[in-house]
Amino acid sequence: MVKTPKESLTILTDMVLPGETNPLGNLFGGELLARMDRACSIAAQRHSRKIVVTASVNHVAFNKAVPVGSVVTLEAKVSRAFNSSMEIYVDVWIEDRESQKRTKVNEGIYTFVAVDKTGTPTKIPQIHPETKLEKERFESALRRKQLSLILSGKMNPKDATELKALFG
Ligand SMILES: CC(C)(COP(=O)(O)OP(=O)(O)OC[C@H]1O[C@@H](n2cnc3c(N)ncnc32)[C@H](O)[C@@H]1OP(=O)(O)O)[C@@H](O)C(=O)NCCC(=O)NCCS
Question: How far is the CA of 53 from the centre of ligand 1 (A)?
Fold first, then answer.
């Protein structure tokens, strides 16, 4: 079976409350990570229709501070499916109260693995990207998977074909 990224789209909208902020009154990084993990987990589950676990957080960019009171929207979508693992991209936006203009503040890239009831990795559907952005994220996902496996000591850099092609 082949699915599309939009079938996994997960949108979480919530406010930033005072108890979720750092001493500057901006959203605490760990709180944002928890929200990202939750959104990605749901997207991974929607794609695979299996139990999913976080395998790695490959990248998080805290580009802009998110002030208390902000309305924060997270949009998570599976960007690529491998055998049992999936890469999920989560984009984080805030919106202006009056103009409703949206500003992208952060993004994260997570890897989830689908498992059976014993926790053993299990096969998932493949994915077919449709939009330009989905295609770009799909194409570059294998590099990120190889980098993540190298950093976690699960892959010998010599076997990282995609990274070799990139760095020579
Ligand atoms: C994630 C987990 C299921 C992987 O199990 P494993 O025994 O390493 O299984 P495998 O080596 O067969 O890897 C399974 C898949 O995960 C991928 N994977 C494992 N670690 C990875 C990492 N650090 N980065 C990217 N992909 C990873 C493998 O490449 C493989 O992908 P594929 O099947 O799509 O080719 C296992 O490590 C686990 O249960 N970890 C705990 C998860 C958890 O509790 N998360 C919440 C943290 S609080």
Answer: 8
Report how far ligand 1's centroid is from the alpha carbon of 145 (Å): 11
Question: How far from the centroid of its chain's Cα atoms is residue 156's Cα?
Answer: 24
What's residue 79's pLDDT?
Answer: 98
CA 80/CA 128 separation, integer angstroms: 8
Domains, the chain, in order of start with CATH, read 2-129 (3.10.129.10)
Report the nearest atom of ligand 1 relative to the CA of 86: 34
Cα–Cα dist 133/24, whole Å: 34
Q: How confident is the model at residue 166 (pLDDT cuts 50, 70, 90)?
A: confident
Residue nearest to atom 19 of ligand 1 (CA): 55
Asked if pLDDT for residue 168 goes beyond 80, the answer is no
Q: What is the pLDDT of residues 154-165, one digit of tens each?
A: 999 888 888 877
For residue 40, report the distance from its CA to the centre of ligand 1, in Å: 15
